[in-house]
């Protein structure tokens, strides 16, 4: 091994220096690339964090039950709207043809009576136009051939309605004949009827819709002045009930029932039958307005009054109202006693 | 002669000839100096090359507080000390004939005087510090301050070291039959 000369050592140093410079550049490049990668990663992370920070907080997902409930609500809303539309059209048709809109008499009334499009057309509607229109346009529903209240001679209502409408706001007069009107319904039947009565009526009925109801088979029978089975009762009673009905049609708000949307929206009074639609709303107690209203009929024979106001309504419930009592059992008992007499 | 200072500044500017001039001027004495430390001419040569490479690659700043030679030798000393630390557990192989030949060649090239070559050979039998201080004082003609800078000792330490080294060298020269006359 010989010693290096000056030139050899110089070349050796230059070679090492070049390798060193190359390695230095490579290391610098690696550092730069690493730094760039780190900066890029940090930027991405920063952007992600910034995005997360700026992103509004997510709303909690609605559960399927909520969604289904909302869907159900929307469906019910649509159904209500459709029902209203159909009701309106049906009501228009009924006012001209004397028919009531088709409805289901077997279903329970909706929990929201104000929006319930379904009506119990078996209950005759007394419209505000009844006082202005002729009696002929007021449809009178024939006596129910259904399973409930067969004994009630509701045909008297037809007579009453056929002569109604000629006067408005007539005072209610009590006659002897009205008081002595025959009542043939048995107590057991009344009880059964009371338990099965679940009628509801259209909310915004502005035209007279007497005469639409359903029988047991579900087919709708339309009563008109021609077909209404007006048979037995005396005319003074009819006039009396007609006057009573006419007296129902009072200026706006007079007979409104507090807390009841479907009554509060009335413009020109309200059909009496709507007051009986949902006793469940009030329980065994009636609103004060309703009580006052009913009190006007207290001297009228319940049978006739019921027949005139609501043919499907049973006497016992009406008597309950008329007697201005909150004890339904007592009313029934008293009423049955009266029947026996 | 600027002892390589200008050459180094030219090298820092980018002139590689400056590095070449430094190598030509300091290669042999640096090898001999490093050889006085490591007592292996080839290792000393490697250390000398490492010193020049350190000078070229790192480009340390020469402040001018000492001569360029002293500064360069101190760099060589640091590199040699680092190598010594690395090779602490390594036993150096005995000097073979080739190494002796190479060393003699360098001595002939650098030490023109026969007397100096005789003394340089006698240094191998002394301690390492004695060799260093004697080499730097006698052959490189450095002052005690410069020697202290290179050896990282104080001036007083270098003076004591130099005194003891001369005594040891005298004894060694007398033992070898050389008539030593203190100058």
In words, what does this structure look like?
The complex is a heterodimer of chains A (341) and B (183). Chain A has 341 residues and is mainly alpha-helical. Chain A has 2 domains: 8-49; 69-340, no CATH class. Chain A is built from 13 helices and 2 strands. Chain A has helices at residues 6-54, 64-97, 155-162, 176-179, 187-196, 235-248, 261-264, 272-275, 279-282, 288-295, 302-309, 315-322, 328-340; strands spanning 212-214, 220-222. Chain A has a two-stranded antiparallel sheet with strand order 1-2. The radius of gyration of chain A is 40 Å and the shape is rod-shaped. Mean pLDDT of chain A is 51; it is low at 94-228, 230-234 and 248-328. Chain B has one domain: Butyryl-CoA Dehydrogenase, subunit A, domain 3, CATH 1.20.140.160. The longest helix of chain B has 23 residues, at 16-38. Chain B is mainly alpha-helical. Helix content of chain B is 73%, strand content 0%. Chain B contains 9 helices and no strands. The mean pLDDT of chain B is 81. Chain B is globular, with a radius of gyration of 16 Å. The chains are: A mainly alpha (341), B mainly alpha (183). The interface between A and B is medium-sized, with 14 and 20 residues.
């Amino acid at each position: 091994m010989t010693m290096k000369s000056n030139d050899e050592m110089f070349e050796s140093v230059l070679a090492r220096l070049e390798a060193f410079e190359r390695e230095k550049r490579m290391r610098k490049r690696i550092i730069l690339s690493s730094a760039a990668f780190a900066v890029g990663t940090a930027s991405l992370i920063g952007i992600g964090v910034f995005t997360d920070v700026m992103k509004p907080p997510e709303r909690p997902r609605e559960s399927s039950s909520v969604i289904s409930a909302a869907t159900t609500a929307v469906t019910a809303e649509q159904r209500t709207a459709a029902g209203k539309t159909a009701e309106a059209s049906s009501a228009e048709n009924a006012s001209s043809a004397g028919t009531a809109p088709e409805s289901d008499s077997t279903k329970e009334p909706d929990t929201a009576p104000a929006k319930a499009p379904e009506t119990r057309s078996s209950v005759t509607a007394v419209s505000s136009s009844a006082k202005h229109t002729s009696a002929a346009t007021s449809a009178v529903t024939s006596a129910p051939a259904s399973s409930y209240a067969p004994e009630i001679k509701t045909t008297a209502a037809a007579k009453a309605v056929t002569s109604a409408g000629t006067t408005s706001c007539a005072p209610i007069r009590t006659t002897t004949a009205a008081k002595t009107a025959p009542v043939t319904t048995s107590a057991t039947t009344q009880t059964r009827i009371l338990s099965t009565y679940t009628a509801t009526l259209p909310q915004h009925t502005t035209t007279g819709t007497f005469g639409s109801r359903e029988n047991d088979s579900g087919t709708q029978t339309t009563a008109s002045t021609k077909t209404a089975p007006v048979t037995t009762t005396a005319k003074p009673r009819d006039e009396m009930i007609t006057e009573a009905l006419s007296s129902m049609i009072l200026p706006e708000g007079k007979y409104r029932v507090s807390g009841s949307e479907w009554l509060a929206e009335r413009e020109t009074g309200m059909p009496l039958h709507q007051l009986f639609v949902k006793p469940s709303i009030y329980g065994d107690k009636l609103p004060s307005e309703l009580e006052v209203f009913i009190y006007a009929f207290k001297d009228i024979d319940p049978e006739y009054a019921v027949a005139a106001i609501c043919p499907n309504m049973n006497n016992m419930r009406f008597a309950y109202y008329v007697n201005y009592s909150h004890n339904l059992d007592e009313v029934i008992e008293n009423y049955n006693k009266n029947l026996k007499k | 002669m600027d002892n390589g200072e200008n050459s180094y500044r030219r090298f820092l500017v980018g002139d590689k000839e400056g590095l070449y001039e430094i190598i030509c001027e300091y290669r042999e004495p640096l090898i001999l100096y490093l050889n006085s430390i490591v007592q292996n001419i080839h290792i000393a040569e490697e250390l000398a090359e490492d010193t020049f490479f350190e000078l070229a690659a790192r480009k340390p700043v020469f402040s001018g507080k000492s001569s360029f030679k002293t500064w360069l030798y101190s760099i060589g000393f640091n590199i040699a000390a680092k190598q010594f630390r690395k090779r602490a557990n390594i036993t150096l192989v005995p000097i073979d004939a080739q190494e002796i030949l190479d060393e003699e060649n360098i001595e002939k090239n650098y030490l023109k005087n026969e007397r100096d070559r005789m003394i340089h050979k006698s240094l191998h039998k002394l301690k390492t510090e004695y060799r260093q201080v004697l080499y730097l004082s006698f052959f490189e003609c450095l002052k005690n301050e410069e020697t202290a800078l290179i050896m990282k000792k104080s001036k007083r330490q270098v003076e004591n070291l130099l005194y003891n080294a001369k005594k040891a060298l005298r004894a060694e020269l007398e033992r070898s039959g050389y008539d030593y006359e203190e100058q």
